[in-house]
Amino acid sequence: MSTELQNRYDFLLVFDVKDGNPNGDPDAGNLPRVDAETGEGLVTDVCLKRKVRNYVQLTRAGQEDYDIFVKEKAILNNQIAQAYADLGINLDEAPKNPKDGAKRNTKGQGQGSEVQSARQKMCARYYDIRTFGAVMSTGANAGQVRGPVQLTFGRSVDPIVTLEHAITRMAVATEAEAEKQGGDNRTMGRKNTVPYGLYVAHGFVSPALAQQTGFDEDDLELLWQALTDMFEYDRSAARGMMATQRLIVFRHDSALGNAHAHKLFERVNISRKEGVAVPRSFADYVLSIRREGLSGVELIEKP
C-alpha cells in the first residue's frame, strides 16, 4: 500500500526545444508564445499538464485508478454522471440521506453529502483530478477540487527567435483546387519554429491538499516519471527535438515547508557558457546549484 504524502515539495523543470514549436498560440497563427516585452519564450502550464496526462494515459492504460478525466473526445458531464451511477445514487429521486434534503432540488444534480461522495469517487478514479484538481460543478455536479500539484508557465532562459518557414505540398485536396493551380498540383503552407530555447517551469506539491484528493507517494513517483520522460512520448514534426534536461526537486522535512519556495529557486542558476553568443543546445549552458545552507530541505536531482 502506498503512504500519504507527508512532505512539501518545490521543483524546477528544465526542458528545451530545437527546431520546433513547443507551444503555439492559436490566437497568433500558432506562433510560439513569446513575452512581448522581453522576447522570452513561454510554454503554458496547461501545455505541460497535457503532456503529463498523455504520459499517464499511455503508461497506465487500463488501470481504473489512473484514468484521465480531461482527455481527447471526453464528455466530462457523462463521466461525472457515471460516478453517481457507480455510487448507486439516483439523481432523479429524492436523496437517500434526509440531511441532504427532503426532495431533489434539481433533477439530475447531486446535493449535500452526495456531492462530496461523487467528488471522492472522481478523485479515486482519475489521476489528473487528484493531481491537478478540476472543476466538476457542471452537469450532475461533483463540486470542485483544488489539486496538490501546481505548475507555472515555462519561461525561456534567453530571448527566443521565432522563424517562419514556407513549405510546399506536391498535391492538392480537390479537383477545383487543381484547376485553380493550372495543373501545377502544388500547395503552399507555413511552419513556425524556434531554433533553440531552454525553458524553466516551477512546480509545487502541497501535502495538505494531497490528503484531500488522495494523492499519495505512488502518485508522486508517477509525476516525477512523467515530467522526466513525457517528451519521449510526445514526438511530432511540429515540436522538433524536445527533452527534459533536468528535474530539480526540493523535498522539505515537514508538511508546511522549511524554506520559502522562491528562495530555493534562487539557488539554481542557469547561464550561457563564456563565449557562446547564440546557444543551440543545452551544452551551451552552465547549470549550477548553491547547495550550502540548506536546512530541513533535501535536494534531489532527476534524471
UniProtKB/TrEMBL annotation:
Q: What is this protein called?
A: Type I-C CRISPR-associated protein Cas7/Csd2
Q: Which Pfam families does the record associate with it?
A: Cas_Cas7 (PF05107)
Q: Which residues form a coiled coil?
A: none
Matching InterPro entries: Cas7_Csh2/Csh2, CRISPR-assoc_prot_Cas7/Csd2
Enumerate the residue ranges of region (Disordered): 95-116
Tell me which Gene Ontology terms the entry assigns under biological process.
maintenance of CRISPR repeat elements
